[in-house]
Every structure is written in structure tokens, then in C-alpha cells.
Amino acid sequence: MVIGVVHGPNLNLLGTREPDQYGVTTLDEINRSLSSLGAELGVTVEAVQSNHEGVLIDAIQAGRGRWTGVLVNPGGFTHSSVALRDALLAAGVPFVEVHLSNVHAREPFRRQSYFSDVAIGVVCGFGAASYTLGLRGLVARLATSTAGG
Ligand code: DQA
Questions:
Q1: Protein residue with least CA distance to atom 12, ligand 1
Q2: Are 133 and 127 in contact (CB under 8 A)?
Q3: 132 CB less than 6 Å from ligand 1?
Q4: Per-residue pLDDT reduced to its tens digit, 58-78
Q5: Quick check: 148 pLDDT over 60?
Q6: What is the enclosing helix (H) or strand (E) of 62?
Q7: What's the predicted TM-score (pTM) here?
Q8: Mutate which of 17, 99, 102, 112 to test ligand 1's pocket (most atoms within 8 Å of Cβ)?
Q9: Can you list the domains of the chain with their CATH numbers?
Q10: Does 149 have pLDDT greater than 60?
Q11: What is the structure's pLDDT at 40?
């Protein structure tokens, strides 16, 4: 099983970007912890980050037929991108939406997501752990559906 991990804009700055909001863990550290958790859970993790909506959409399209599920932090696109939502729907595989911060405890515009209603689950507010919790949930769900449940 290959799981695509999609990181949206500005997440390349993790570690130094608004540490009070997003913590001090870098994107590389997050990707490394997802890879080692993936190995533990028996899945391969393929991560992509871009500040460009079209690049993220191309990556999701390239994952069609190969990615069994997707873990996505759309960053600021969470609150704006119909096109990224459509790309995930077109991929036709389950996805989990994750956020480092608790988007519901911040500015009102962050409460609106173009992804939550079509995600199988949403994890937010746990910092870098949102990703590992999300991966665990996604793999558990995939294991259930593969087993026919
Ligand atoms: C974020 C929350 C978004 O509102 C914000 O634009 C981000 C990061 C998070 O992980 O908490 O870039 O997705």
C-alpha cells in the first residue's frame, strides 16, 4: 500500500513559521516520522509539498491508481481550493485532512474547509502528532475496507 502525503503552501517553513501556532518540528522531521510509522504499519509513504495549487493537483493526479489513500494538510488552500478538493475526489481513494493547529479555535474564516465533508476523518490541533494520528486512522480504515468490512 502506498499512502500519498500532500502538504500545502507555507508548510515548507515549518520549524520557523509562527512556532506558537505550528510548533518547532520541521517538515522533514514530520515526513521522517510518517515514513517510520508507515514502515511499522506496513505501508509506504510518499510525500509532496508545494506552494503552488497546480503542482499539488498534478501530484495527486500522478498518484491515481498508485496511492491507496491520502493524508493531506492543504494549508491555506483548506479555506479556498475547490480545485484541490476536486483532484482528491477524482483520485477516488479515502483521504484524511490534518492540521497542526486547531483551526476551529482561530479566525472564523479557518472554520470553513473545502475538504472536511468529503474526508473520511479530520485531525487538528495536535501539532506534528496530527499527522501520525491521521496516518494511523487512515491505515486502520483502509485495512477494514480491504477486509471487506
Ligand atoms: C494549517 C491551518 C491553515 O489555516 C493555515 O493556513 C495553514 C496551516 C494547519 O496545519 O494548522 O497553513 O493547515
A1: 75
A2: no
A3: no
A4: 999 999 999 999 999 999 999
A5: no
A6: helix 53-62
A7: 0.96
A8: 99
A9: 2-146 (3.40.50.9100)
A10: no
A11: 98
